[in-house]
Design brief:
Number of helices: 25
Strand order of the largest sheet: 2-1-5-3-4
Distance between the termini: 17 Å
Mean pLDDT: 78
Shape: flat
Number of strands: 7
């Protein structure tokens, strides 16, 4: 980090003085350094940075070499269309930590070709390429995905190649990160289609900060559940220090959040927390040279927190009664901002942010004796930590606060049990009238528990089914099917879409477009209407009608969902403490002047 800090300051100074190190007298015709002039420059700048002349000279030479190489790269690109890309390799794959790694390639080639070349040169078997926080698709060209001459690409290992080689083919397949992402997505897609209308099916609902289920449009709910599911999986991997794998899942979450409406994202803190987690992974992977992406993500995080919590946390105080637990997010935000400012060479801004961090840290770092006393009362470590932070370290208030929270949760569970018991009674009444339990359960769900409305829905459904049977031939007329076939859809899905839309070609076309021309069994279930900031699962046994494979996927992804809605606030601050100490060391190197 200190090398980046020094280089950033020197670049600013060189820019101010309009000094071009790639030109004479600093570089000769052979691109070798003009030693006397470089030495004079180092001697002039060393006092400004309060650094030894040798260290400044080394940094200037590194900048000169970068500039010369960039010039060569520009010339090569103009003449041959061969671009030079900078690779940010995993730490254990770098031959020399201080040397930048480059790759020359045309930009009209598939990403897979570049992946194969990197893998062969650096001994990496399973990798992903990340550009500006987006995973590059291997089946598309570089230039189609925004890669340009001199682009910086982050190389992420999917998992340790040597370890993989020791596994059998079947075990290797299960551990492959691509499959992990696919399984996570499939599992949460199945859950996002479930609406709780079937009494024996596990389903998810999204709740507000007090745990109350919210209602949002079905399409946004699906995207939000997928986004939050990938986020939960990523956070689970972060706790295990598997930052490569975690980052891949977090970036998938970022893509899904982009499908949610801005009004929804502005009212919850999940998207802002995700941006913070992504940059935290950048830090852990020592990939903070992704400066532009990191800075924009931290800005989105800060804007999101202010919009969600209020400028003075007033909205948070109104909802939760305190803001102590959320302060850990601001501590991490300011700490990362301090780190990025330092890398950019802005020591004053880095120190300013670090001062805010230390102030928060002193308030959030808890008394071990008070923690022990609360745990002796039967509270968990998480409850004790969150309770003390919520109550600014007051032991008695924290005990009362935790007890009240426990009571609120128990009362909510009791209401849910009563609601489910009432639901079972009503379903039994409807089945006695000749309807199946499945149909009765769904009708009751869409009638918000009103038995008379549920009966009316069932009655209307029966009459509609009769009418549909009479109109099937018209819905599947050859002309309508041909129109969909002409658009490129398969015959079987075209016919299914026409049945579902009562023969309306426009609606059938939109249905197929929304689902990429694939109508899975899950997509044929009726839409649900639940959603907000935490996912909670209804742990019920699976129905026999659900496939074993689906059950395995669902159970697998449910394992990564925290059972506590404030798990993301439960930070021990150990990693933060280490980074604070590192930042203090760097900022106390004697840099009293900024360039």
């Amino acid at each position: 980090m200190s090398e980046q800090n020094t280089e950033s300051k020197l670049k600013m100074q060189l820019k101010q003085e309009r000094i071009q190190l790639w030109n004479p007298p600093y570089s000769d015709d052979s691109n070798e350094p003009g030693r006397q002039h470089m030495q004079e420059l180092a001697e002039r700048y060393a006092p400004l940075l309060c650094l030894p002349v040798a260290e400044v000279g080394g940094a200037l030479e590194a900048i000169r070499v970068q500039a010369v190489n960039r010039g060569k790269g520009n010339k090569t690109f103009r003449e041959t269309n061969v671009a030079t890309l900078e690779l940010l390799l995993p730490r254990d794959s770098k031959k020399d930590p201080k040397t930048k790694n480059h790759l020359e390639t045309r930009l009209d080639v598939l990403v897979q070709e570049v992946v194969d070349r990197i893998g062969e040169e650096y001994g990496l078997k399973y990798i992903k390429l990340i550009l500006n926080g987006k995973t590059l698709s291997v089946d598309q060209r570089l230039d189609q995905q925004g890669v340009k001459n001199h682009s910086k690409m982050m190389v992420l290992k999917v998992s340790d190649a040597e370890w993989k080689l020791q596994l059998s083919n079947e075990e290797e397949k299960k551990k492959n990160q691509n499959e992990s992402i696919q399984r996570t997505q499939k599992g949460f897609q199945i859950l996002s289609e479930r609406d709780g209308s079937e009494d024996t099916t596990p389903f998810l609902e999204i709740a507000d900060q007090r745990g109350n289920p919210l209602t949002i449009p079905h399409k946004e709910k699906k995207a939000l559940i997928l986004a939050m599911g990938f986020h939960e999986k990523g956070r689970s991997l972060m706790k295990k220090k598997q930052f490569d794998n975690a980052l891949c899942h977090l970036l998938q979450a970022d893509q899904q959040f982009s499908k949610c409406g801005s009004a929804l994202l502005g009212s919850v803190d999940n998207f802002a927390v995700l941006q913070l987690d992504i940059v935290w992974c950048y830090r852990a992977l020592e990939a903070l040279s992704c400066l532009d992406d990191g800075k924009s993500r931290l800005q989105r995080a800060e804007d999101g927190f202010l919009q969600c919590y209020g400028e003075q946390r007033q909205r948070l105080l109104m909802i939760k009664g305190n803001s102590g637990r959320e302060e850990v997010l601001f501590l991490r935000l300011y700490l990362l901002q301090s780190l990025l400012s330092y890398i950019e060479g802005n020591d004053a801004q880095a120190q300013h942010q670090l001062s805010k961090v230390e102030c928060l840290f002193s308030r959030l770092c808890l008394d071990s004796e008070k923690m022990a006393q609360l745990m002796a009362l039967g509270f968990t470590e998480r409850e004790a930590r969150l309770g003390l932070r919520a109550c600014q370290g007051d032991l008695q208030d924290a005990a009362v606060h935790i007890s009240n929270q426990r009571q609120e949760r128990e009362e909510m569970k009791q209401r849910e049990r009563q609601k489910r018991s009432r639901k079972m009674e009503v379903i039994s009444t409807l089945t006695e009238l000749g309807y199946s339990r499945r149909d009765a359960s769904r009708a009751l769900h869409h009638a918000d528990g009103d038995v008379d409305r549920a009966y009316a829905i069932l009655l209307d459904s029966s009459q509609a089914a009769e009418a549909t049977n009479n109109n099937t031939e018209d819905a599947l007329s050859p002309d309508k099917v041909e129109q969909l076939l002409y658009l490129g859809f398969e015959r079987d899905v075209s016919e299914t879409a026409l049945r579902l839309t009562g023969g309306d070609v426009q609606s059938a076309t939109q249905l197929l477009l929304d689902n990429q021309g694939v109508l899975s069994p899950e997509l044929l279930s009726p839409p649900s209407t639940s959603t907000s900031t935490s996912i909670s699962s209804s742990e019920e046994p699976s129905t026999s009608s659900t496939s074993t494979a689906d059950n395995e996927l669902v159970n697998e992804v449910l394992e990564d969902i925290s059972r506590h809605e404030e798990d993301y606030l439960d930070l021990t601050l150990e990693e933060e403490s280490e980074l604070i100490a590192t930042m203090k060391t760097y900022l106390s190197r004697g840099h009293t002047h900024t360039v």
